[in-house]
Each structure stands twice: as C-alpha cells, then as structure tokens.
Automatic annotation (TrEMBL):
Gene3D superfamilies: Heterotetrameric sarcosine oxidase, Probable tRNA modification gtpase trme, domain 1. Signal peptide: none annotated. Pfam families: SoxG (PF04268). InterPro entries: SoxG, TrmE/GcvT-like. It comes from Streptomyces griseicoloratus. Transmembrane segments: none annotated. It comes from the Bacteria. This is Sarcosine oxidase subunit gamma.
Length: 201
C-alpha cells in the first residue's frame, strides 16, 4: 500500500522575513514595530448599498457595511472596509473565510451580489510604533496626519509604488494594517526594512 500523501504545511508569504521584521522593534528602540498578520479571511462583497441585501448582510455579520467613502466599521473580530460605492472588503480571523463567505451568500439570498473569497490574494503587514506614520509617509502620497487619516479610515493607495489597502490604527497607539498582494509582499517588506534604517539606534 502506498504511503498516505502528507499535506504540505501552509506557509505565509512573509514567513521567511519573520525574524527580520521582529528585529525592527529592538533595532529602533521601540520606535517601530513590524509584523505580518498572515491568513486573515478576506471576502470581497459587491451589492446595492440601499437594497435589502445590504441590511441582511449587515445583520448576519453584526455590523453595518460602511457607506461613507474610505471608512471602516468594526464589530468583534470582523472589519468591513469601504472600497467603493458598492464594494467592500470584509476581514475576519484566520480560518473563518468559508464560514464568512457562506453566511454572506445566504444572507444576500436571491439579490444581485458578488461574494468572492480573496483571502489568498493579499497578506497583511502591521506597521506600528511612534514613528509608524513617518515611515509610511516616506512612500505614500496620502496625508497620514491623525487629523486626516485617523481611526475609522481606510484607503486604496500606493506605498513604495505597490498597490495596497491602508487601514488606520484601530485606536491610538495601535498599528496600521497594510494589505498588499502576496506577490508584492516581499518587495514591500524589503522597502519597509530599508526605510526603517533611519530610526535604528
């Protein structure tokens, strides 16, 4: 009898960089913290924001899909990001993607909607510390001052010429989430590590 095929362990796009990312906090005296948040569930949703399906999806998720441009709504371990007038990205904890997708589809019923699991498309970098805004400002054209980009805000933008979804800290002192395509994650990590050299002790 042939040996059973062992599943290949899942590996995040930045697993190879974990030690270098972790070292930034030590090397900058705590001015910066970098880490990967791997395997977050990411479900793309498109539907009529004024239709019954939007209310039903909001009810089943326990949060209302944000309708104000570039805003974020959080509830429990779920986050909904506004990406366009009829487009959102719903983020959940690792391992929740199938459940999230099925719950959204079921809630939408027969309405005209698009529900797409894009979890494998991007990984997430956490950029925190007192100098996080300064670091990101090196490669991002957005005004990242707290008065312009504070808690509850998100944006599709470029960082070091890589397309990203940037999410403001959940609360003062927390880190920015940078959602980047997996194929660009290594490049963006190298750029962040190089840019962080300015604050190395």
């Amino acid at each position: 009898m042939a040996d059973a095929v062992r599943p290949v362990p899942r590996r995040s796009p930045l697993a190879h960089a974990a030690d270098r990312l972790a070292a930034v906090s030590r090397d900058t005296g705590g001015a910066l913290h970098l880490a990967e948040l791997p395997f977050l569930a990411q479900i793309g949703v498109r539907l009529d924001p004024k239709g019954a399906a939007a209310d039903a999806v909001g009810l089943v998720l326990g949060l209302q899909l944000p309708v104000e441009p570039h805003t974020v709504v959080r509830a429990g371990n779920l986050t909904a990001l506004w990406l366009g007038p009829d487009e959102w990205l719903v983020l959940g904890p690792p391992g929740s993607r199938q459940d999230l997708e099925s719950r959204i589809r079921e809630a939408a019923g027969d309405a005209f909607v698009s529900v797409t699991d894009v979890s494998a498309q991007r990984t997430t970098l956490l950029v925190g510390g007192p100098r996080a805004r300064d670091l990101l400002a090196h490669g991002c054209a957005l005004d990242l001052h707290p008065r312009a980009f504070s808690t509850g805000r998100c944006a599709q933008t470029t960082l070091a010429r890589a397309q990203v979804v940037l999410v403001a800290p959940e609360e003062p002192g927390a880190g920015f989430q940078v959602l980047v395509r997996s194929s660009f994650a290594g490049y963006l990590t190298d750029w962040l590590l190089d840019a962080a050299t300015e604050w190395r002790a």
